[in-house]
Structure formats: structure tokens, C-alpha cells
Amino acid sequence: LATPGGQAAAEWMAGMYSAGLTPTNVGDDEAFALFEDGEAAMFITGPWYIERIKETGINFSIDALPGAEDGLENGAPFLGGQGFFISAFSENQLLAEIFLTEYVATTEFMQSVFERDPRGAAWLGVDTSVVPEASAFNAAGASAVPMPTIPEMAAVWSAAGNSVTLISQGEDPIATVENAKAQIDEAIGLMNSDARIVGLPGSYQAAAGCATDWDPGCDETLMVAGDDGIFTLTIDVPAGEYEFKIAINKAWDENYGVDGVAGGDNIPLVLDADSTVTFTYDDNTNTIEITTE
């Protein structure tokens, strides 16, 4: 992010926003709506949008990301992967292994999975030509870089995403990406330490004083550590319907949802009036209690 190339990209992005060529604060759903309504000539997405785009009836094409002057001919996006894993806690590991090797790892099964959700296929026997759009995405991603399969990647997305939002709001692009890098470095350091910093990222954060929503590193929504693994946060939140989660050490690698389930569903927060909300989190059970005044 803070390399010369990253800084140049941030400045280019800032120019696109200031010239009114790119709308601000746009996520996947908003970008798709603009494309569907004919207000956006293109948008960047992946094969998970194939069926949704086809349903619009729009005449479209799928092309590689453009390169840069004196750079690559085509842009190099991140490449994700999907796979099957056997839980180390399973009481039926041998049965699970047999299921994967004898049933899942067959051309018939893999072909069915691909046609159900055409995101490309690592199984060489799969005929991807039956979904031409998937083949087009494969070609567009020929220069893609595999995403590192390390837990530290969970510390990247919030700070990187927030930097784009802040740049779209007119913040200095160089200072913004340098700050994002510092936040990522801190988050990775925390992931590799014994520290326990508890945050409550959610859809209420911007209304409560954070720069953006769903930011596990926002100082305003970090909890105060007490005795015996109990953490608290008291904060003023406007009336509304919100959702949030519990995130550890300013990153998403360790997070908890409803009933303290790791990676579980978002926790609802419904306020009929402007309220002072107190959250009490038990790090022993990963559960949280909410009281309002």
C-alpha cells in the first residue's frame, strides 16, 4: 500500500474521485445497481456475479483488467481458491477422507459443483465450456496472483478498505495509505502476540464516531479490559437497527457472532431511541450482554 506503486495508485484513485468519474462509498451491491441501471459502463467483480449479470439481460463482455503505462499489459488481481477440509476435531476423519477421495474427487461431482456455481475449477476433467462466462473469467485472471494463505491476510482488509473510503472522501492519498500500512503492521503484530484487544465492529460505527462501519480497529469501539476476562464499552449510539460482531486484536481472523459462535452470524442491535449503550463481553465464553440507558 505504501510503496511507490501503491502511492501512485492512491493518487490516481483520488483523481478519479475528485473528477467525478467514480462514485464515492460504493460497495458491490451499489456498483451492480449502477451497472444494471445503465449508469456505470463497467465494474470490477468476479465469477460469483455471473448468474446475476445474465439475469439482467444486458449485453456484456468479460475482459481482463487493463494494465498501466510502462507496466503490465493486464492488471494482476488476487486469485482466491476454494477447497475441502477435514476438521481436526472430527470423530469420523477416516470416513470424511473416504467421502472426499471416493465421492467428491470425481469428475462427475466436480462438474456438478462447477455448473451449480461456476467459479472456475481446479479439477482438470471439468468442462468449463458449458459456462462460457466462467472461461472468460479464467482468461481474464490468467495474470492473477494467488492470495497468501496465511492468517495475517485477515489483518489487511479493514485498513485497506477504509483507505479507499477515506480517499474517496477527499483525504490525502499518500498519508492515507501510509496510515493504512501502519494499521496493518500493528494488527499483524497483535495477531502474533498474546495481547487481547477486543473491538466491536458493526454497522453502527460511523454513527458512533468511527470513520467507517465494520472497522475492527476503530479506537472508539475498542473495549476496556477488566478482571477475569471481562471487557466493557459504553458509547452513545443514535436510534436505529444495527448489527455488529466481536473482533479480536483489530482484525477479522478471530471474530465471534451470535451466542459466541466463532465466525457466527452478526449480532443485532436495535435501538428505538438515541441511547447510551453498554456492552459487556466475556472472553471466556465469547458472549456479550447489552444494556441501554
Shape: globular
DSSP strand count: 11
Q: Strand percentage, roughly?
A: 15-25%
Largest β-sheet summary: 4 strands, antiparallel
Summarize the structure.
The chain is of the alpha+beta class and 293 residues long. 32% of the residues lie in helices and 15% in strands. It has helices spanning 4-18, 28-36, 50-56, 93-104, 107-116, 132-140, 157-168, 173-191; strands at residues 78-79, 145-146, 198-199, 224-225, 230-237, 240-244, 246-248, 255-256, 267-271, 275-282, 287-292.
Commentary on this structure:
- The chain has about 290 residues and is α+β, with helices and mostly antiparallel strands.
- The strands form 4 sheets. Strands 4-5-10-11 form a 4-stranded antiparallel beta sheet, with no helix packed on it.
- It is globular.
